[in-house]
Specification:
The chain has 87 residues and is an alpha+beta fold. Helix content is 26%, strand content 25%. The protein has a five-stranded antiparallel sheet with strand order 2-3-1-4-5, with helices on one face. β4 and β5 form a beta hairpin. It is globular, with a radius of gyration of 12 Å.
């Protein structure tokens, strides 16, 4: 049986927000990957950042500490579909 890694994805309104968030997350030691926003959501910018769901709390804390903006964050299911809006 394969282990399914649960993910979350942050969406953004601008490219500048994506770059700022990526920098903050990496400095905090949180792995992130640029991905297209999920089909189920309308995002202002065509790039989202995917992280492990287990890093969600640390990511929100790190972004808030640096006043880094994002549009929304979603929990993704096993096929990378949105299963819940987290914020």
């Amino acid at each position: 049986m394969a282990i399914v890694r649960r993910n979350a994805v942050f969406t953004f309104g601008t490219g500048r927000q994506v770059l700022a968030a990526q920098q903050v997350l990496r400095r905090a030691g949180i792995a992130c990957e640029e991905v297209p926003p999920p089909r189920e959501v309308v995002a202002g910018w065509g790039v989202a950042l995917r992280i492990a769901l287990s890093d969600m709390s640390a990511a929100v804390d790190a972004l808030a500490l640096k006043d880094t903006e994002w549009e929304a964050v979603y929990e993704l299911g096993p096929r990378q579909e949105v299963v819940a809006k987290l914020g």
